[in-house]
């Protein structure tokens, strides 16, 4: 990889990688550790990445780091994401509070989905990866990914409808 240095990759994608990993493990400290592990692994294998596939490749590295960590220990209780919350933000305090509440509600609903559905929603809808890129990261066929994503969206719609009926 010639265009990107590790520093430029870190600057471009650290927030995305952190949010993705935090969405998976729901633990600020574990997510921070996994971000560091992700960029360490990225540093080791930077030359294997194609220039036009940096973000999906980095998400795959992050996912593998998460899986390796998850296999070693069980999830712990989520804590506040203080460090990344202090990174520069251009929202007003009111917008920030409203966004934070909304993200917590959305996060709870998404986290309640089955693992594959949660992955599909996070990778495609939240992080903007293509169907194929997300399917590759999840190591499933494209057709299966589309089914999983459809079911995840359907579950979210049903949750929203139940909430509106109350």
UniProtKB/TrEMBL annotation:
Keywords: DNA-binding, Sigma factor, Transcription, Transcription regulation. InterPro entries: RNA_pol_sigma-70-like, RNA_pol_sigma-70_dom, RNA_pol_sigma-M_bacilli, RNA_pol_sigma70_r2, RNA_pol_sigma70_r4_t2, RNA_pol_sigma_r2, RNA_pol_sigma_r3/r4-like, WH-like_DNA-bd_sf. Residues 104-156 form the RNA polymerase sigma factor 70 region 4 type domain. The keyword Transcription applies. Residues 9-75 form the RNA polymerase sigma-70 region domain. CDD domains: Sigma70_r4. Belongs to the sigma-70 factor family. ECF subfamily. This is Sigma-70 family RNA polymerase sigma factor.
């Amino acid at each position: 990889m010639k265009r990107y240095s590790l520093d430029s990759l870190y600057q471009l994608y650290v927030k995305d990688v952190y949010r993705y990993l935090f969405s998976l493990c729901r633990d600020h400290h574990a997510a921070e550790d996994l971000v560091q592990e992700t960029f360490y692994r990225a540093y080791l294998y930077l030359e294997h990445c194609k220039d036009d596939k940096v973000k999906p490749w980095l998400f795959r590295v992050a996912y593998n780091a998460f899986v390796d960590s998850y296999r070693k220990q069980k999830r712990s209780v989520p804590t506040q994401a203080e460090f990344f919350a202090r990174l520069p933000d251009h929202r007003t305090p009111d917008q920030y509070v409203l966004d934070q509440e909304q993200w917590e509600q959305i996060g709870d609903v998404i986290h309640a989905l089955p693992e594959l559905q949660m992955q599909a929603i996070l990778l495609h809808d939240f992080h903007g990866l293509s169907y194929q890129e997300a399917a590759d990261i999840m190591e499933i066929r494209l057709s299966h990914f589309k089914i999983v994503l459809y079911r995840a969206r359907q579950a979210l719609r049903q949750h929203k409808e139940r909430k509106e009926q109350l």
